[in-house]
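Note to self: user wants both folds in one dump. Writing first protein now.
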Amino acid sequence: MNTPLLLLLVFFSALAVLTAFLDLLTLFAKKRLPHQKGIGKRWKEAGVYRETVEKRKQKKRDKRFNQTDVIVFILGASVLFSVGLMFFRSIFLAVLFIFPALYFPKYRRGRMERKKTQLFLQQFRSAMGSIATSIRAGTSLQIALKRCEDDLKKELIAHKSKPVLDEINEINHDIQFGMSVDEALRQFKEKMKLEDVTQFVDSLLAVRSKGGNINHVIHNTSERISDKIMVQQEIQVATAQKRMEANMLSIFPVVFVLLIMVVSPDYLRPMYESTVGTFMLFIGALLLLANFFIGKKVTNIDL
């Protein structure tokens, strides 16, 4: 073989090996493997999609929630420090006023969970009605679950969040790949950990295992749970005014003090000239924060 051609071949071979090595180092540094196109779709068709891709998505969501908690704390601490510095005129008290911001991420998570639960129960009411109607028509529970999925797709087509549809879809997916109906429902109950879901699933499992009139049992159970959800929604509407009053009681003193500081600054001067007066302002601000959170807790009525 010609020597220049051999040298050229060796050069390009070495260049290819070096490029592959650099690509491998890049992948190792980014802690990821090459992603094959369409692998997620094939995994989903094979029934292992939830065990791989969805777990990674859940980890990303958890990481995003942690980052959001830090951002919420930083924003809350900044607001409280600014308010404390404006009202107390003391850096030390303003720094102490930051500590209630540690509760803000927990309060935000609890509020999001309550909203998510309320949305789930509203959609779960429709799901129970669909399942009860299908069973009264003489279909089996497995077919009723499939029809429930189709009904929810039509009913919730304009909704952005569809937690019940996602869960029913997962149940049908598990049944399709060999899991029994009882085991799929039991897994759904353990995952949700909601009293209404537990009652509905337990009634289904009890009738299927011990026998009985499944139409009568499901109709009565779904009707009772639906009435409970409706009453809870009516309570939320009835307590809306009280929640607004609690917010006004927390906001009005702050607005009132701001007006006094603008209209008559000398009126509050004795409070800042003594340590006791400044400390009393600090205690008053803490009581306002406590009033806000206690008011939210009192007006949040669960059945």
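First done. Writing the second protein, which came from a different request thread.
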Amino acid sequence: MTAVARVRPPDPVTRTAPSLRVVVVNGSPSEPSKTMGLVDVVLGTLKGMLPIEVSRVDVYRLGAGFTGAIERDDVTPDVEDSLRRAENADLLIAAAPVFRGTYPGMFKHFFDLVDQYALANKPVLLAATGGGDHHALVLEHAMRPLFAFFQALTVPVAFFASAGDFDGTTLLNPRVYGRIEVGLTDVVDLLRARATGGEATLRTGG
């Protein structure tokens, strides 16, 4: 009797979800900073919802090739790389502290060098820190109009934390954590679609 060889079925193919390329543009001159303390919580929460790859641009550490540039052609290759990373992100997180009622000049200078149409329809998540809750107005009255100029898709949720929400640069206030969790849940379908090259609508509700 001839033995029949058993054919082993092929192993199932494991499909890995594509990672969302997140670029943080950090407008704080301090290291460490409350601004990045807030952003770190946002990134940690987002990482629990979908795969992400994160890179960071610290505008105050880009050097003379950035601060001395008037036009895009003036920047050094490393600054050009930072600009291109921001322009090619799946999600841009624009984060800044509030100084004298608005974002710092170096933060604005970075976006002065970004191509005018590079952020069109790109999801941009806004984050800011300030001395008190009244500084939260910077999100709607300064930062959102800046990205409206670029025709960016600034997501409806934005995150703010005041000095009293931190111990040093560590965010402690559970209410801010809760706002971040709820806010990201409302937009995660949109962000996931960006990672896969598809389209999605924003969830409504809290």
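Dump finished. Worth passing along: The first helix runs from residue 34 to 47.
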